[in-house]
């Protein structure tokens, strides 16, 4: 009579100790039901490297990433959620977490004060305005001054309109008194050629942090809506565009919150012809972009070459305006 041989799943070693065979505590994605080495590689390849990332995912996202069935994907998510503390936090705990927020300054005291001391990490700041209003100049300045946080602070600059200029970075770096070569090396630039490419580049930022170990503190998307505006034409495509843009904004917000980094996006504008009173300028992207952005700043041209920043929306700061001008070596207050 043949002996029945049952293959036992090998026990992994964590922190120098073997995991007990009867342990029911899920500690990594390898412990999830139906996840072997091949499935784990597929999950990690698209950013699902820990239980939290799976717990907050949708079944459709897991199915797309792995090819597994919908029922198994739902079970995967349910087990991940049951293994994590996903309850409520008290206000004082959140306040302590806010101590980790870093402010990236602009060089203009008035502009810094408008947003509570600088552009903060863990949030999305959207600047919208017509061409020449200073959106890209602020982006270049933030990319330089982000490196005042620490020597290894890295900026990821996603360029959709061919507006990034290393020569401008060089001028700003000299104005701040930083080493030009070091500043340029700490800025990772990628040119996005369409909306899908733009979204993919945002997803790859997680790899820069986890696999390459870069200390990314600032992500710039200049501009956010240029490709979406060009590719989705007419009212018939509006729903698809907004859905895609919504997913893009949530990926950016997840990056900001997960890695405590600042996300700065520039946005184009349009003129509403049916508006007879007030400023007819309106940001592209509608309520989708507006709701996803933590801070919203409207930039416009002022007198004698100055720029005016108006805070439209903020979770904690009152509405207000600040004047500044862009000089050769930096952004400065209007005297």
Entry keywords:
DNA polymerase, domain 1; alpha/beta; two-stranded antiparallel sheet; nine-stranded mixed β-sheet; Rossmann fold; 13 helices
How many strand segments? 15
Q: What structural class should be given to the helix and strand makeup?
A: alpha/beta
Largest sheet: 9 strands, mixed
Helicity level, as a percent range?
25-40%
Q: What Rg, in angstroms, do the CA atoms define?
A: 23 Å
Please provide the ordered H/E string of secondary-structure elements. Answer: EEHHHHHEHEEHEHHEHEHHEEEHEEEE
**How many helices?**
13
The 3D shape can be described as globular
Q: Output the strand order for the largest sheet.
A: 7-6-8-9-5-12-13-14-15
Number of domains: 2
Quaternary arrangement of the chains shown?
Answer: single chain
Classify the fold: give the CATH topology of the largest domain: Rossmann fold
- The percent range for strand residues is 15-25%
* CATH homology superfamily name of the largest domain: P-loop containing nucleotide triphosphate hydrolases
Low-confidence stretches: 1-23
The CATH architecture category of the largest domain equals 3-Layer(aba) Sandwich
Mean pLDDT over the full residue set:
88
Ends apart, CA distance between termini: 96 Å
Reading off the top of the CATH hierarchy, the class of the largest domain is best stated as Alpha Beta
